[in-house]
Amino acid sequence: MQLSFSAPSTTGTGALVIAALEGGAFTAAAAEADRKTGGALKRALDASRFSGKAAQILEVLAPAGMKASRLLLVGLGKPAEFDRPQAEELAAGVVGRLLASGESAVTFAIDLPKGSKMKPASLAAHLAMGAKLRSYTFHRYRTKGLDEITPTLKKVAVGTSDVPGARKSWQALSAIAEGMFLARDLVNEPPNVLYPAEFARRARALTKLGVKVEVLGVAQMRKLGLNALLGVGQGSAHDSQLVVMQWNGARGKKGAPVAFVGKGVCFDSGGLSLKPSASMMGMKGDMGGAAAVTGLMHALAARKAKVNAVGVIGLVENMPSGTAQRPDDVVKSLSGQTIEVLNTDAEGRLVLADALTYTQKRFKPQFVIDLATLTGAIMVALGGEHAGLFCNDDTLAERLAQAGREEGEPVWRLPLGSGYDKMLKSKIADMKNIGGPHAGSITAAQFIQRFVEGKTPWAHLDIAGVAWQDGEQKALIPSWGTGWGVRVLSRLTADHYEG
Ligand code: BES
Ligand code: MN
Ligand code: ZN
Questions:
Q1: Per-residue pLDDT at 168 exceeds 80
Q2: Taken in order 172, 473, 76, 103, is the CA torsion positive or negative?
Q3: pLDDT digit string (tens) for 109-146?
Q4: Ligand 1 contacts CB of residue 402 (under 6 A)
Q5: Could you tell me which residues come within 8 angstroms of residue 355 by beta carbon, excluding any fewer than 6 positions away?
Q6: What pLDDT shows up at residue 114?
Q7: Strands 258-268 and 367-372, sheet pairing
Q8: Cβ–Cβ < 8 Å for 320, 271
Q9: 347 CB neighbour count, 10 Å cutoff
Q10: 434 C-beta closer than 6 A to ligand 1
């Protein structure tokens, strides 16, 4: 899909999007269209339930008196509430309707409602963002019915009084959208295709954006001592991998980087502590943390972020077999701490433990944030509305919460504490990999915190509830894999760590 910005116009071919306020009053462009069509728009409005509420759409086909093939009158809602999210959802609604409708072009002629806090450039860029995010498809494995689902919409033009400003804002947003698409693709791919080495191969493609990518195989990891990570993958026919991505965009190339670590379990069967079949479905998405980190590195590089950033992802497949890790095994992690593995389905924390140690030892980052589809319990607590946040640093936590609110990827902080930490006591090793029956997300976070070194600010995002969506699709996410994390972390970086 090709996106462009141009001076406002209502004279183009294809679909034309115009707006009305809550109550039904036309904006200037809509009033003009109504005039040209001899009042057809007003008659259509009167014959419908359209009232100008946010996200409402009234469609008029083949209007006489205009070149446009159809008019889409969209509601802006209350001007004071009209902001970036409303602009994105509006454009997403329009594109959702038109994407495979037969229409090939759409022009947005949305005048900024008086009383909105937005600037014209920002409105245009966020209309484009909504259009772009809604245009995502994952049809790679369909061979049938393609004529109905293949997108026909090829061109999206956004009219704006500030074309240069819109283009500038769009540069960064389009980089973020690309990163989200990469993350969605990775989550959507089936696990027979996207096993650790294939994931690593795709991460390697970031090289073309200027990201330095290293891939460590089993032999290298064994030599270094990443035994907690390797233990998880030892039952699989596919070798485990550790991918290290570096983007050095800061003026001072030597400055301490920000670091992101992702859980990349390409399939989580549970291992010998096998999951029941219903719970195993969807476990191809258990690499959602690694997908987000990879998508984020793509976004940072594509928008040439002025930051030094590292992304480290631990890629494994958790399978039962004759070589699989046993419940009762004890492994020595890279940190030197020993872990009694009592449940092989609590594998994500084992992967993160070593990936975190590796990242801190090698890079001495300003902060480290890990993302992981870590616990079913976080879905019990927060559903799909918030990711769980655990953090040892109030400033970092507040910055993440703020970025999450602004980018539509909200997080909710949960507590840590020594009482929870005690639940990880092992009879024979430094810790066990499961807590008790309660507070499963917290004991998991507590486990990870044992691998945070010194005073390093650390945040853990449990994204098990938000990395994919099974119920109703969100307006901007027309896909099972959501790409959650790219937006909030790009924003966090932009607001506080670039310059
Ligand atoms: N990948 C799962 C967590 C998960 C569950 C993500 C459902 C998304 C949806 C994780 O590896 C896991 O199995 N966690 C266990 C931990 C338990 C064994 C302590 C869980 O949540 O049940
Ligand atoms: Mn598991
Ligand atoms: Zn898992």
A1: yes
A2: positive
A3: 999 888 889 999 999 999 999 999 999 999 999 999 99
A4: no
A5: 226, 229, 242, 261, 262, 312, 313, 314, 370
A6: 87
A7: parallel
A8: yes
A9: 29
A10: yes
The finding on whether 421 has its CB within 6 A of some atom of ligand 1 is: no
Whole-number Å distance, alpha carbon 345 to ligand 1 midpoint, is 7
Long-range contacts of 423-426 (CB under 8 A, 24+ apart): 424/450, 426/339, 426/340
Cα(267) to centroid of ligand 2, in Å? 9
Nearest ligand to the CA of 270 is 2
Can you tell me the distance from the alpha carbon of 266 to that of 191, in angstroms, rounded to the nearest whole number?
6
Atom of ligand 1 nearest to the CA of 286: 1
Q: Which residues of 10-39 are buried (b: 16+ CB within 10 A; e: fewer)?
A: bebebbbbbbbbbebebbebbbbbbebbee
Task: Write down the domain spans for the chain.
Answer: 2-160, 175-496
Is ligand 1 within 6 A of the CB of residue 127?
no
85: tokens are: 């999210």
Q: For the chain, give the percent of residues with pLDDT over 70.
A: 100
* 170: amino acid identity, one letter: W
Which amino acid does the sequence have at 273?
Answer: S
Alpha carbon distance 284, 288 (integer Å): 9
- In the numeric block, which tokens belong to residue 23? 């109550």
pLDDT of residue 252: 81
Which residue has its alpha carbon closest to ligand 1 atom 13? 345
Which of these, 205, 142, 155, lies nearest to 179 by C-alpha position?
Answer: 205
- Tokens describing residue 148: 């109905």
Tokens of 389: 């946040």
Which strands, in side-by-side order, build the sheet including 329-332? Answer: 329-332, 338-341, 431-432
Contacts of 233 (CB under 8 A, 6+ apart): 196, 218, 239, 240, 316, 317, 318
Residue among 286, 257, 497 at smallest CA distance from 373: 286
Q: Which CATH number fits domain 2-160: 1.10.760.10, 3.40.220.10, 3.10.310.30, 3.40.50.720?
A: 3.40.220.10
HSE, side-chain direction, 13 A CA sphere, residue 431: 26
- Those residues whose beta carbon sits under 5 angstroms from the ion ligand 2 are 268, 345, 347
Q: What are the distances in angstroms from CA 259 to CA 75, 105, 400, 495?
A: 42, 41, 14, 16
Regarding the domain with residue range 175-496, which homologous superfamily does it belong to in the CATH classification?
Answer: Zn peptidases (3.40.630.10)
353 lines ligand 1 (CB under 6 A): no
Alpha-helix residue ranges (DSSP H) falling in 189-240: 196-204, 218-224, 227-233
